[in-house]
Amino acid sequence: MIDFLFTADALMALVTLTFLEIILGIDNIVFISIAANKLPEHQQTKATNIGLLLAMVQRIVLLFFVSFLIGLKEPFFHIETSWLHLEISWQALILFTGGLFLIYKSTSEIHEKVELPKHGENELKGKKIKSLSQAIVQILLIDFIFSVDSILTAVGMTNGIHPNHNYTLVLMIIAVVISIVVMIGFANPIRKFINTHPSMQLLGLAFLILIGFMLITEAAHLSHTKLFGNTVGAIPKGYLYFAIAFSLFVEFLNFKMQKKQK
């Protein structure tokens, strides 16, 4: 086992998997930051750390059920009409439900911040413990949705590295642990930055709407959806990450300009 972990193929796969998990975890960090910032200040760091640690445990447990996750890709229901073709699988349903939840959660948060700016402060009083548990549950649910996609991608990347499945399983677990440790290191500074800059809060919520829409289109793609003869394609994640990076760059220039004006 030790000899395998220090081979060139294993180290390259470990670096690639860790990088993949961190990149895919950007979506998670944005959601965690917004969910945790709804809590009282003394519970925000706790919710972020507990949520990420439980997410790590959840991903490791899911890795032991890889065959079950692969089975989620198989269609269990077909719809065939003159204008619609669908091959519905559990994976597509999970992504579709998660996309709808992200869009609903983000739009309701934007409405609350724009139309009812003091509503959140009033609601936090008297239900702090309940809010902490709700935040952690939401973090775990969203992480489960992202985990299904990332774990299946990781399985495809490690396929063929070693004939013993246990070796590749250990490799994926190490990648998950490293990526979660890195995310814990960056999650709280990112959360504090988002919390202290209202424009970043709205920008983060807008990102979640984009991610929700991407999950819905990916679910349609996995279902081999054809609408009036037109196939629904998946949106390349690179486009989404470029849009996020470009928006952050513009916001950074805006901060610099505001500082100079002050």
TrEMBL record:
Membrane topology category: Multi-pass membrane protein
Annotated keywords: Membrane, Transmembrane, Transmembrane helix
Major localization listed first in the record, in broad terms: membrane
Segments crossing the lipid bilayer: 12-36, 48-71, 83-104, 135-155, 167-190, 202-223, 238-255
Pfam family of the protein (one): TerC
Annotated compartments: Membrane
Lineage: superkingdom: Bacteria
Alphabetical list of InterPro entries matching this protein: Integral_membrane_TerC
GO-annotated cellular components: membrane
PANTHER family: MEMBRANE BOUND PREDICTED REDOX MODULATOR, SLL1022 PROTEIN
Similarity-based family: Belongs to the TerC family.
Official protein name in the record: TerC family protein
Source species of the chain: Snuella sedimenti
